[in-house]
Structures are given as structure tokens and as C-alpha cells.
Amino acid sequence: MTEDRNFDDIAHKFAKNIYGSDKGDIRQVIVWEDLQQILKLIERDKQALNILDAGGGLAQMSQKLAKLGHQITLCDLSSEMLQLAQQDIANNRLLEQYRFIHSPVQSIEQHLTSKVDVVLFHAVMEWLASPKTALETVLDQVKSGGMASVMFYNHHGLVYKNVVCGNIPHVLEGMPHRKRFKLQPQKGLKPEQVYQWIEDAGFSICGKSGIRCFNDYIGNQQYMGDYQPEDVLALERQLCRQEPYLSLGRYIHVWAKKNNKQD
């Protein structure tokens, strides 16, 4: 990408298509299970955590954390997305636990007065011109002993999906940019690179999950088996943290703990 993607133009469509679907349900279930592990791992000397939801869009996941009593700073480049999030947060009676910042994640440090306990950085990097730089900035906002929750669009999953759909020449050509998919990132990130970026920023990776390791690859043939949507979700939950399935997820969620300075 040559510039960062702002979702002002399609915020309402994004909200409907991304979250109002089986795909969105799978994503939320798996990531929430992981976030519960993060809460268990973090060393906290107080009940309420300070959490940064960087590029948080509609704040679907951070609202679950707010309901547990945590304080959230929601930052997004899109004013439309922030407005939709604020409406939803108000409907859920969680406004007192939120602070809203209209800003690119690369400038978030200007709006914070202290380091945070936890940062959420979900499905943002694949829309940025310089994902590594943005990730470094976001991770730098976490205090020692704090946690980072990072989710990104997986290059390997994009390759596999194109192969399953028969787009073999497109894969052989290196999957050049296509303009027709407004809600689908045009380029995935290679997991091994992202893991290295996280570790280079002073974090130790605690766990990983593949998001939609199976759902997106199920064909549409008329006679292919008898199953229900809940069966697919059960399969995802059972195998999404095991290789080789993990590395074929359309997205990968990784959580990591910031090393103490003396480590």
C-alpha cells in the first residue's frame, strides 16, 4: 500500500459485513478466549487495567474488557468509525470507561500521558503503508510486564484461499493488487516477520491462534457433508492453536508480554 486506509467512506458497510456475519462471530469467539488468557498472565497491582485499543474501529473486543471494569482508550483514524463505536458504547452504557481519540496510531504517543497495561492492535497493519513502524509505535506504549494483543491478515492464508478458489495464475504472479475488494486487504503479512518484529520490540510471545483456519476454505458444492455453523466454530476452537492449521488462518492473533527492563 502507498498510503494508510481510512474507512470513513465505508464505515457502515464495514460494520455490517465484518461483524454481522459468521466470520465475525468466529473471530470474536477465538480472540476473546485469547484475551482471557492475557488477563490471567498480566501482573497487575490494581483491579482496573488501562487498555489502548489502537485502530480499534467499532471497539467490539474492548467493550468486552470494559464490561469487566477496565478503562479503554479507543484510537482510530476514521471519524466515522469512532462515531459508530461511540454510539454502540453509549447503548451498552460503557461511555464512562472510554476515552476517544481521533488520530492515526502512529501519533498515539502524543495523546497518552502514561504507558498502558494492555494494547489491542487488531486487523490494522494490513491496511498501512508501513506496518512495522506502526507496530513499533504501538508496542512502545506498553509498560514493562504489560501485554500486547496483535492480530494481522495472514499472507499464507491469502495464498491458500486463492489456490482453493482456483486463482492459480494470480498466485504465480505474486498476487498483485486488485481494486475490486474494498473490505478485503490486498496484501497479507508473513507471520514469521511479525513475530520477529514483536520480539525485537522487547516482548516474549506467549501464544498464537489462527482465526478462521477452516471456515473460509469450505467449498459451496451442493453435496459435501452434513454440518451446522456451530460445528465449524467447534472445529475452529479445537484446532486453531495447533500447527499446521494455525499458520493457515486467514488472520493470526498473537499475544506477548513486554519484558521487564532487567530481563
Give a structural overview.
- Helix content is 36%, strand content 20%.
- The chain is α/β, with parallel strands linked by helices.
- It has one domain (8-257): Rossmann fold (3-Layer(aba) Sandwich).
- It has a seven-stranded mixed sheet, sandwiched between helices.
- Helix 3 (60-66) links the parallel strand 1 (50-54) and strand 2 (71-76).
- The longest helix has 20 residues, at 22-41.
- The protein is globular, with a radius of gyration of 18 Å.
- Mean pLDDT is 89; it is low at 7-13.
List the helices and strands and how they pair.
Layout: H1 11-19, H2 22-41, E1 50-54, H3 60-66, E2 71-76, H4 79-91, E3 98-102, E4 116-122, H5 131-139, E5 142-153, H6 155-164, H7 168-172, H8 191-200, E6 203-211, H9 229-239, E7 251-258
Parallel strand pairs: 1-2, 1-4, 2-3, 4-5
Antiparallel strand pairs: 5-7, 6-7
Helix pairs in contact: 2-9
Looking at this protein, list some descriptive labels:
263 residues; alpha/beta; Rossmann fold; 7-stranded mixed sheet; 20% strand
